[in-house]
Transcriptional regulator, AsnC family (Rubellimicrobium mesophilum DSM 19309), 153 residues
Amino acid sequence: MAFRLDDTDRKILTELQADASRSLDEIARAVGSSKTPVWNRIKKMRDAGIIRQQTVLLDAEALGFEATFFVLIRTSEHEAEWQRKFLATLRARPEVQEAHRLAGDIDYILKVRVKNARAYDQFYQALISEVRIYNVTALLSMEEIKSTLALPL
């Protein structure tokens, strides 16, 4: 049976998405409830897999990661062994923040965060040395206009 969210669950999730470091008392107050019921709801949503993890968002630029590249990949390889190796390579590279398999002319898109263009070239050289790729196009993001992990609840 699927977990069904009610309005209070959605309010709790909205509060957690905004700032999960706040105390249970603060979250409970914000959603019009008390601490114990909010804790129980959070626990149920964790157990159901709706809340996967709590983490900290770091400022990439403040830490020197000033370049974001979107990397478009086309491959002529579609065998299971190639795909396994490619996915393992992506998962092992900390520069890859996101990777998506696409429908259409492009097979994969990666979001790669690095310190600069030279660091991207090192990433690129390592990637193509580990797996055969038909075509790679890298697009440098000039400005991040919007970035959020919050879901529109």
